[in-house]
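Raw record, unedited: D-aminoacyl-tRNA deacylase
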Amino acid sequence: MRLVVQRVNKASVSVGSKLVGEIKKGLFVLVGIRKEDTEKVALELADKLVKLRIMSDRKGKMNLTVSEMNAEFLVVSQFTLLGDATGGNRPSFIQAAEPEFANKIYNLFINELKKTGTQVSTGQFGEYMNINCELDGPVTILINSKE
């Protein structure tokens, strides 16, 4: 799995003209799922994300988790995170999981986040989405299950 985690003041996702997910202060998370990812990987990365201390404390230091800030997650699947353009100008997506498997892992990841009691909003798997984000910082962290 590959996560792109961005700290935001607000973020929203729409499919066509329909709003499907939005948050105020929190983390906007793009999720790419590889063919070889497992349920164990999804659970480990969800745990890592919940414990990630990149929210600012009162002194402006990245020291708090989303739950400590009473903030939220907006999670969106994005297979293009696994695009590889090293062999040419058109990315290859052969590392990306097939949609049925990816959706299963994606939902497991989301459900694990929800178990913490933190508010979790999502995009709509497999759909073309319009995303609006107001970055905070900006703070962007990349997390990979595999180097």
